[in-house]
Amino acid sequence: MANDVSYTPEEVAEILRISKFTVYELIKRGELMAYHVGRKVRIESADIESYKRKSKGLAPLDSPATTPSPSFAPTQGFSHNPSSDEGLVICGQDILLDILTRYLERQFPQVHFLRRYIGSIDGLMALYRGHANAVTAHLWDSDTNDYNLPYVRRLLPGHPTYIINLVYRMEGFYVAKGNPKNVTTWSDLTKPKVRFINRERGSGARVLLDEQLRILGIRSRDIVGYGEEEMTHLAVASKVARGEADVGLGIEKVAMQFVNLDFIPLHKERYDLVIRQEDLERTHFQALMSILKSPSFRNEVIGIGGYDISSMGEIMAEI
Questions:
Q1: Cβ contact 115:101 at 8 Å
Q2: Distance, CA of 135 to CA of 230 (rounded, Å)
Q3: Strand 112-116 relative to strand 87-91, pairing
Q4: Does the keyword DNA-binding apply (predicted)?
Q5: In angstroms, what CA-CA distances link 145 with 137, 215, 227, 268?
Q6: Are 23 and 13 a contacting pair, CB within 8 Å?
């Protein structure tokens, strides 16, 4: 594609074989660059190519391969005790965190609320190191059949925390419409003609997969594509939708954005927010808790679809 060609979101959706809604989400998350001409949104062909390269784990065409992604660089200048002139860093990849951040920005326009789109284990490590203030996790422990508590205990020693529920979500397989490879169970990933696309190490989906493989005695080397990784549920679903993989693991909400995907439900997961206990009485965190319990926020999340909010805002554990 020539560099001087630009496209509308609808045209980009056709090129990438995804929904128009997904294109706007990619733009909002900063994964796909765009600009405005008046009230119209345009995406240049070079930025489409850049997004495709990043989805494949390749370096951007105009950047050296060793350049780290800004989203994963350590955040400087933010502590776990933010004042009005500091920022508050929220880690996690779900769209409901973008909505939560928007609500906080309305109440505290003087505060810089930053979003980092990183996986569960990286988020907990960022909280431990003081690079984040609130992080999400959906890490299943097969020994206890519990979510998040065992990992928080191990990764945040000496840091008392609250684990607060956001939502419950369904994890499962993304497959092409009609499920032509008939993939319905974890064991089906070992079928010789099934190409899998994995999530990055440290993500909740990757932990769930590896725990299930351990329980079933399945060797990762017997899964074609196990070593191929993507950084988000959206990128995994997009790869399956484009026919570059036969199956991937992710949440149901993302599958709803693709017209040519089916979703095979496998495991209901708990998606929690983790904060330090000392922070809960601070103004920003009290506001956050109030937002989680507010009818307006809950109704907006319900309207998105794909989430169980029955325990939203409840403290699941004190560690």
A1: yes
A2: 20
A3: parallel
A4: yes
A5: 15, 12, 26, 12
A6: yes
Rounded Cα gap, residues 159 and 255, in angstroms: 36
Strands (E) located in 118-257:
134-137, 140-141, 146-147, 161-176, 196-199, 229-230, 247-251
Instruction: Name the CATH superfamily, with its identifier, for domain 75-167+270-318.
Output: Periplasmic binding protein-like II (3.40.190.10)
288, pLDDT greater than 90:
yes
Residue range 170-269 forms a domain whose CATH class is alpha beta
120 burial class (0-12, 13-18, 19+ CB within 10 angstroms)?
buried
pLDDT at 83 over 70: no
- Give the pairing type, strands 87-91 and 134-137: parallel
pTM tops 0.90, yes or no: no
**Same-fold call for 75-167+270-318 versus 170-269:** yes
The C-alpha atoms of residue 189 and residue 237 are separated, in whole angstroms, by 16
